[in-house]
Amino acid sequence: TAHNLRAPVARILGLGYLLEMKEIAYDEKLDIAQKIAQNTQQLDDIIKDLNYIFEIKRKDQLPLSYLSLPSMIEKVKELLEKELQDADGELLVDFSKAQCVHAFSPYADSVFYNLINNAIKYRHPRRPLLIEISAEKIESYIRVTVQDNGTGIDLVLHRDKIFNLYKRFHPNVEGKGMGLFLVKTQIESLGGRIEVESTPQQGTAFHVYFKERAY
Fold this sequence. Notes:
Layout: H1 2-20, H2 26-58, E1 65-68, H3 69-79, H4 81-86, E2 90-94, E3 100-103, H5 105-121, E4 130-138, E5 141-148, H6 155-158, H7 179-189, E6 193-199, E7 203-211
Parallel strand pairs: 2-4
Antiparallel strand pairs: 1-3, 4-5, 5-7, 6-7
Helix pairs in contact: 1-2, 3-5, 5-7
């Protein structure tokens, strides 16, 4: 948290110091003032993000219900319809082994939205995008796998950082690197976990474990 806040604060302080220098021309001062405003907005965005994350972590009891996996994925598919079309992407599902999860609906929606959106963003430039989603019962969990054939991630280098806040591995892709952090935070708040398998230039599979209801 301190690291994420320190960078824009340091830039604002440095720009403020420049603004006080008498030899700075008026046009330069206008440019500096604009940069101060931009960094202040960035700082405000970070604070909003952190407040949202802390709100997730503070929730001790969430109203859980049984959620249909086909319905949730169809809803996300509709939300990302244009992005899938632009990517010439295909989304295949197999829920023959598990049809539902016990979860808090907004968090589950967010988990699948972020994972599918990630697959679209990090698609491979030289082959059509394919996203495969399946579910099965593993011990006391329902494991939902979201697998793509995209650019992949080098887990030897990045496994410990992949779910960090504001972490990005492909600088040419839009986004601020919050999606996977949110996915991990939300699934853990539901008593579950997330795992990743990936091979560079071949694709990535995220395994999301939703805890089954205890009777």
